[in-house]
Amino acid sequence: MYTLGLDIGSTTSKCVILEDGTKLMAKALCVGGLGTSGPEDVKQELMTGSCLSEADITNTAVTGYGRNKYKGCDLEVSELTCHALGSRFVFPDVRTVIDIGGQDAKVICMSESGKMTNFVMNDKCAAGTGRFLDVMANILRADISELEVLAAKAEKPATISSTCTVFAESEVISQLANGESRENVIAGICNSVATRVSSLVRRAGFKEPVCMSGGVARNGAVREAMSKAIETDIKYDPLAQYFGAIGAAIYAYRSAGYDN
Q1: Positive/negative CA dihedral, 234, 112, 67, 250
Q2: InterPro entries annotated for this entry (predicted)?
Q3: C-beta neighbour count of 37 within 10 angstroms
Q4: Beta bridge partners of 209
Q5: Which end of the chain has the least Cβ crowding within 10 Å, N or C?
Q6: Structural domains of the chain, with CATH
C-alpha cells in the first residue's frame, strides 16, 4: 500500500510517498509554504513524478507549520511526532533530533524504542532559525547555499554576541563596516545559530546518537558548529529536510491499521 506525507513549512513544502511504510518511492520539494500554492504544487509534482494516481494512495497525513490550515489530507499530525518518526526511518538508533526550520527550532528526545520522552522548542524568536540565516545572507549579499562554502574560508570567525535577530543584524553591519571579512562574519553567524540551539539541546537532556533534521541541516558549517557546541558527533543524511514528510507518511501507514 502507498501512503503520502506532506510537510508544510514556513518557506517550503515537502512531500513523499512510502510503500508499506518502509520504502521511499518518491519525494518532492517546492519553495512556498503556508499561505502559498506550495502545498498543492509539491503534491502535483510528486504524483506526476511517481507515476501514481491519487486513487493509488491509501492514506495521507499533513504536518508542519501550516498543517492546521490545510484540508487536503486525511490526517493532521504534530511536527514533533513526524520528525521523531522520520529521523528513525533513516537512523533507527537515534535518540535526539535537532530540527532547525524556517521559523523555529526544536529538540526531540527519544527512548531506545523511539518513544518521545522530552522536547524543547524555540518558537518565539527568529534567532537560531532558518529565518535568521536568510536575514544575515541578505545583508551579506550571499545566497543561502553559499554560506557553508564561505564559512569554510574563515580565518577567524567573528563573534556575534546578540541573540536577537534585529540586534544581530546591526552587529553584522557594524563588523563589516569595521573591515571584518565576509567569511569571518558568516562563520560567526553559523556559530551563533549553533550556540543558540545548543542551549535547547542541553536543556532537553539529550542522549546520543544525535541527528539534525530540517532545511538548516544541509548547512555543513552549522552542523560542525553544533557538533562542537554540544561536544557530540551529529548524524546527517541528505533526506534531513524530508524527515517531517517521511514521518507523516509513516503515521498515515500506521493509522491505516499497519505497523512496521
Answers
A1: positive
A2: ATPase_BadF (IPR002731), ATPase_NBD (IPR043129), CoA_E_activase_dom (IPR008275), Dehydratase_Activator_Redct (IPR051805)
A3: 11
A4: none
A5: C
A6: 1-90+241-259 (3.30.420.40), 92-235 (3.30.420.40)
